[in-house]
Amino acid sequence: MPAKIISGREIAEQVHAELRERVAALNARGISPHLVMMRVGEDPASVSYMKQKEKSAAEVGISSETLVFPEETKEEVVLAKIAELNRDPNVHGIIVQLPLPRHIDPRKVVEAIDPLKDVDCFHPLNVGKLLLGEPYLLPCTPHGVWQLLLRSGYSPEGKHVVICGRSNINGKPLFAILIQKKAGANATVTVCHTGTRNLPEITRQADILIAAMGSPRAITADMVREGAVVIDVGVNRVPDPTKKAGFRLVGDTDFEALLEKVEAITPVPGGVGPMTVAMLLWNTVLAAETQAATGRC
């Protein structure tokens, strides 16, 4: 029997509906959640992604603006703008789109953002709270993966979850979310990476396999056990002369081969991607709610 396709677009719309109600409640108190996105340069993928964020924000009633700086902008200029946004009580969320030009230190930029407005959840204070199990905000993609599992009926609680990938953006924070002793988490989590020996032996043990390796079709059918649930975080461009753009997007799994073997799987595109954006909006609304409760706006 073919696998269930876990639609990130459908679940993201559920989240959007919930956020519209929360935004309306804030509006009734005279508070308009506001997100500021900063981009340095014209990286095509960043331009496209930020337009998607703007559109989704508008759909749930969040106001947003994108500040674009030339590629050659000095680091101190970016840091000064962040400091200005930190002081603005009408700004509830700040993100700086990565990657940055090589002359700008992303660590300095991330650490300059007020942790209360850090809706990407990259600031060390927020990362530390996450690891301690006392999070203020959750990183967008890992939170999106978690919500996909919970809302599609595949709670990781008590399951063996294998995460392929240990990045600071995906693998590590996802581990921190799923390992916590709380409802909807409480999983046994194994993290695999480039130094892992006998990777297929480990991935075949997974009840839930999460592929976040950044390598097209790296997870093949023989690496996954029958009836597993697979979440594909990867977004990779592969050449395709039949497409106008000359390429198409594929995940980190061999999607077609897995369809007849696993219980459920996310597609690429249309799986984790929409949930990442939805969780950014979630964080912006939560940040506005929190700042209102503490008298910051």
**Unreliable runs:** none
Q: Tell me how many strands there are.
A: 11
CATH superfamily of the largest domain: NAD(P)-binding Rossmann-like Domain
Q: Can you tell me the overall shape? A: globular
Please identify the oligomeric state.
Answer: single chain
Number of helices: 10
Structural features, described:
- With 297 residues, the chain is α/β, with parallel strands linked by helices.
- The chain has two domains: 85 residues, Leucine Dehydrogenase, chain A, domain 1 (Rossmann fold, 3-Layer(aba) Sandwich); 134 residues, Rossmann fold (3-Layer(aba) Sandwich), CATH 3.40.50.
- Helix content is 40%, strand content 16%.
- The protein contains ten helices and eleven strands.
- Strands 1-11-8-7-5-6 form a six-stranded parallel sheet. Strands 3-2-4 form a three-stranded parallel sheet, sandwiched between helices.
- Strand 2, helix 2 and strand 3 form a beta-alpha-beta unit.
- Helix 6 packs across helix 7.
- The longest helix is centred in the C-terminal third of the chain and has 22 residues.
- The termini are far apart.
- The relative contact order is 0.17.
